[in-house]
Specification:
By secondary structure, this protein is an alpha/beta fold. It is built from 10 helices and 12 strands.
């Protein structure tokens, strides 16, 4: 379904691009949220705007206003998406981060090995995912700052340890603790049926240690949580599950990779621009340089166009792995 964005939304979006202060950005985002059409086609956009507003508010609160010290638990988003790892003690979060990234979190068999947020960058098919390992969550223990981080994240992964005797208790503890903080974890970013106070965080469920006899517990997870979450079996010892995870992260976040080329030169295939699905030539120009938007005349596209190097207009919707040549 097309978004059919109103002129008021477009004006607020332009103010956001020109904003130089957190207050100006927050005001523009608030207006964008107010004026965006409310239908199924804009649910992901609404959720993304809400996350950006929450992130700005959290940064403002931690910036040291009134003589307060900045929060040491704040992890600035880097890469193309920030993904939080939630789970009970010893559920495999740190092992996955150590396997997929250059980060070296402490990995041990005793609980509460992770005490501080531990970020690491996971590169998969030219997309950079910032994985943030968090302290374990239990019915009797929850670090309050986790809720603050969650309100600004792009995605969460909740770990269900197939090797644990407390498999279901661990999952329920995470869901209950997040719900107490008005954070609803779901496979979709829709807020339909929830109160205005609740923030919906799009979430995948990882069935960790998915190898050997532990796989016998996977059907139980699917029966109990299959409607609420997409459940991915993952094992650090099975490379195919790690590759599948990277693919699903990009698909779940609806991210596309767009490569660029300068007229008369070869395309730059080393580092694409990563954009939301549905982006146009104008969006590509904007992420390269804000001044390109007003100077843009047309573009040529290789990939999803009818023929290689087809000339297209500013509103042409680019697809994953397109090569774009801008003409100013």
């Amino acid at each position: 379904m097309a978004a059919n964005l109103s002129p008021e939304y477009r004006e607020a979006e332009e103010r956001l691009r020109k904003a130089s202060t957190a207050h100006e950005k927050q005001a523009a985002l608030t207006e964008m949220l107010r004026s965006i059409p409310k239908h199924k086609g804009t649910e992901k956009m609404q959720a993304a705007i809400k996350r950006r507003i929450a992130r700005l508010r959290n940064e403002e609160a931690r910036s040291g206003k009134g003589g307060k010290r900045a929060n040491p638990f704040l992890i600035q988003p880097e890469g193309d998406a920030q993904i939080l790892l939630l789970g009970p003690p010893n559920s495999g979060k740190s092992s996955l981060v150590a396997t997929l990234t250059n980060a070296r979190p402490e990995v041990a068999d005793y609980p509460f090995t992770t005490r501080m947020p531990q970020p690491g960058m996971f590169l998969h098919q030219d997309v950079y995912f910032q994985l943030v390992d968090l302290p374990p969550i239990m019915t009797s223990h929850f670090d309050p700052w986790i809720a603050d981080l969650a309100r600004g994240a792009d995605l969460a992964m909740i770990f269900a340890d197939l090797a644990s005797n407390d498999l279901l208790e661990g999952v329920e503890a995470v869901l209950e603790q997040m719900a107490k903080r008005h954070l609803h974890l779901s496979r979709k970013s829709s807020s339909h049926g929830l109160s205005d106070q609740q923030v919906v965080l799009q979430t995948l469920m990882l069935a960790s240690r998915a190898d050997g006899e532990h796989l016998e517990n996977l059907p139980l997870l699917q029966d109990l949580y299959g409607e609420r979450f997409e459940i991915l079996p993952v094992s650090i010892h099975r490379q195919e599950t790690l590759q599948a995870l990277g693919q699903r992260l990009r698909e779940t976040l609806s991210l596309i990779r767009v490569y660029t080329k300068t007229p008369g030169k070869e395309a730059d295939l080393q580092r694409p621009f990563v954009l939301p699905s549905g982006s146009t030539i104008v969006d590509v120009a904007r992420v390269i340089h804000k001044d390109f938007v007003k100077d843009l005349k047309f573009a040529k596209v290789w990939g999803s166009s009818q023929f290689g190097g087809q000339r297209v207009q500013r509103d042409f919707v680019v697809q994953d792995k397109d090569i774009v040549e801008l003409h100013l």
